Amino acid sequence: MESFIVSEWLLAELQQSRFPLRMPAHRRVYESIRRAIVSHHFVPGTRLPSTRSLAEALKLSRNTLLAAFEQLHDEGYVVSKTGSGTRVAKTLPEDFTDKKYAKNAGIPDASRSPAGLSARGTAAAGQSNQPSHEVQPFAPGEDDFSAFPTQLWSRLLNRQWRAPQPAHFDYGHAGGHLPLRCAIANYLRMSRAVNLTVEQILITSGTQQTIDLCARLLTDHGDLVWVENPCYWGARRVLEVNGLQLHPVPVDEEGIFPSIADFRRPPRLIYTTPSHQYPKGVVMSYGRRRLLLDYAASMGSWILEDDYDSEFRFEGHPLSSLQGMDQNARVLYLGTFSKVMYPGIKLGYLVVPPDLAESFKRGLYQLQRPGQVAIQAALAEFIEEGHFASHIRRLRQIYGERRRLLQEALAPIISVGARLPLAGSGLHLMVGLPSDCDDLRVAELAAEQGLKVYPLSSYGMGENREKGLIIGYAYAATERISHYGRILADVIQAALSH
Ligand SMILES: Cc1ncc(COP(=O)(O)O)c(C=O)c1O
């Protein structure tokens, strides 16, 4: 496209578009160019006219054009090179949510969706991580339930149904069963330093539904969301299906690490896993927590703190929750019973800032409906009678031992350039692999030996994805873990020695 055609097109666009009256001129120019790029009027590689000539053509000051171009550049819509001017970027921020990104992430092309499904439905249903019932050693996210007190649990459930209340048959209270909310509130205050009243807690059907509820109640279609890169695919999928624009922010050894360019474009939501980043396993530092909280407060962003496995910290003192440090009511705290109890229980909780409590209860009722009152009542008793705390202690011991044995068995891989984590928490660990390693291939080689590990790059977004393996140790039996660990170490050593 010729430069003068670009100027003409922009002039017409600026005159025709109905921008809000108070929108500054640089923002109007930015928005017009951005729309032209996203709608492919300006295709990748199109050279934009110089700011000087555009300023003349549009009868605007050059500073206005410079400000608009700077923003387009910072957000990745255009690239500038000395000598060849400013061109439309080859990879756009939208590529993370459009077809190209979908292809990388294993989401089927909506234009070829299964009959009858919407684009949203296709994105939701056509995920690469199909539910699998074939559990193999080291599959992340899988637990071994042999330590679960099944008899005690069935006694507590039976107790509910021996003398059922009318409420047991109903949807129940809008925020969830009150005794369970009280029990969770006590637990969170003591063990996670969460700052809350019972009114702020809602019982949900697990984190997946909690994220969906937050997305629906706090965002509109097209809003920007920061996600950690690499990111928990479950959260990513729900946010995408809600039509949000995902902005991946890198994670270093102190947790999520936004750059100055990231800060320039404030998100509506920030999804993060500070206690144990999923999947890298790092714990967010105190400084990073402060930075994120201060930024969210100044920009009016909401932080979704997914504290999915903080019960399993094996060394040192647990860091308190991000929510507990928040002075400005910007954090929504998400917890689940999937890890400590069992995933099929489908119970989680959400702690919202006081001002959101009533709207969230109404929203939960309208969108998802509560229910499962008898299970909630049994769980309240399980916690109140102290069984929950002792079950966590028992699991922590079992999983801590499995992790220690696995680390020991994997130690030889350090000699071929792989990295093992220092801190110990959670139900999985990440082995770091060199950047030129094909971690998908290493995972395939492990699968040939009957071991299921996930390549770190499959959780990444964009180019230059980090390489590694995500190894779950909760499912593998303690007596077998050294054996499996040695097989995996051999696979990694062989792959890295070639
Ligand atoms: C980061 C993260 N959040 C939350 C969950 C649990 O979600 P749910 O409560 O939906 O089972 C998982 C499960 O693997 C997870 O990895």
Reconstruct the topology from this structure.
Layout: H1 3-16, H2 25-38, E1 47-48, H3 51-58, H4 62-74, E2 78-81, E3 85-88, H5 99-105, H6 119-125, H7 150-162, H8 178-192, E4 201-204, H9 207-218, E5 224-229, H10 233-241, E6 245-252, E7 255-256, H11 260-263, E8 269-272, H12 286-299, E9 302-306, H13 322-325, E10 331-336, E11 348-351, H14 357-367, H15 373-384, H16 387-410, E12 428-432, H17 439-448, E13 454-455, E14 468-472, H18 478-497
Parallel strand pairs: 5-6, 5-8, 8-9, 9-10
Antiparallel strand pairs: 1-3, 2-3, 4-11, 6-7, 10-11, 12-14, 13-14
The chain binds pyridoxal-5'-phosphate.
Describe this structure in a few short sentences:
This protein is α/β, with parallel strands linked by helices and 498 residues long. The chain has helices spanning 3-16, 25-38, 51-58, 62-74, 99-105, 119-125, 150-162, 178-192, 207-218, 233-241, 260-263, 286-299, 322-325, 357-367, 373-384, 387-410, 439-448, 478-497; strands at residues 47-48, 78-81, 85-88, 201-204, 224-229, 245-252, 255-256, 269-272, 302-306, 331-336, 348-351, 428-432, 454-455, 468-472.
